[in-house]
Design goal:
The protein contains four helices and no strands. The protein is mostly helical. The chain has one domain. The chain is elongated, with a radius of gyration of 15 Å. The mean pLDDT is about 90.
């Protein structure tokens, strides 16, 4: 999405805002693997608001240059209790 709200204060450059689905957002957060992101994803999993199997599947589609982060994220995800 791109509109006046995605532009810099001067109006240029115009940035593109991405509208991710909830599982894709979780994948992005898990690749970063910051504590606050893990807490966020854990809360969504605990509340059964996201599909852990779908997140795991999508972690397998991450570009190879991020393999180490994707593997760490998958290990973390596998260790999470599921409702």
């Amino acid at each position: 999405m791109q509109n006046a709200n995605t532009a810099a204060l001067t109006g240029e450059p115009r940035y593109t805002g991405l509208c991710l689905d909830k599982e894709d957002l979780c994948v992005a957060k898990l690749i970063a693997l910051r504590e606050k992101d893990r807490n966020f994803v854990a809360a969504l999993l605990h509340a059964d608001l996201v599909d852990g199997d779908l997140i795991a599947s999508r972690l397998g589609t991450i570009p190879r240059k991020h393999d180490v982060a994707a593997e760490a994220a998958l290990r973390w995800l596998d260790a999470q209790p599921r409702p």
